[in-house]
Amino acid sequence: MRSMSDDHTHVQEFFTARAADWDSKFPDDGPVYAAAVAELGLREGARVLDAGCGTGRALPPLRAAVGPSGVVLGADLTPAMLEAAVRAGRDADGQLLLADVAALPLRADSLDAVFAAGLIAHLPHPAENLRELARVVRPGGTLALFHPIGRAALAARQGRQITPEDLRAEPNLRPLLAGSGWRMTSYVDEDDRFLALASRDS
Ligand SMILES: C[S@@+](CC[C@H](N)C(=O)[O-])C[C@H]1O[C@@H](n2cnc3c(N)ncnc32)[C@H](O)[C@@H]1O
To answer: Ligand 1 centroid to 170 CA: how many Å?
Structure first.
């Protein structure tokens, strides 16, 4: 059985190798990130976490949404991704945390929303990890699970088939969220985006 630290090592190795080129590989994604952030419906002054923020591509639209009085945090467990975020100046838009979403250094109910792009497929224990995200969000707060391309397009890019076991398939994701403190409120899986929104149980 793999231990937590094995899981971390694998994720960190995978993303450390890709950190320096991450943004240049996907140069045109800005507008789809901004559109996904808009669907969170954040208000001025809101507190939001970008979970698995990587190079911080979502931090500028998140800051624009909550304004200067809001709180924007970006958490990631791969130092090289956070270093790339700093090189890109994204730490100006949010506070970066070297942290595992399995154990966030945040108080219960302290956030209004969590945005997570490209994260869930990398989580070794998705139900527990989604529950930890629910812990830090206030009742009625929002979760966005986003990917800038849909499941079919991503599978094709990676040269694999989508299987019925795919975590992000709607029949799997809905009960996974429901068992982790979230109620799925919308689900879109199109070629040019995947976006599942959920509301934190009261
Ligand atoms: C596919 S990348 C997406 C990065 C960024 N959200 C984006 O959209 O460009 C996934 C990121 O999640 C991070 N990650 C994976 N598992 C994590 C965990 N348990 N806790 C925190 N970050 C994690 C990885 O280090 C990586 O930076």
So the answer is: 22
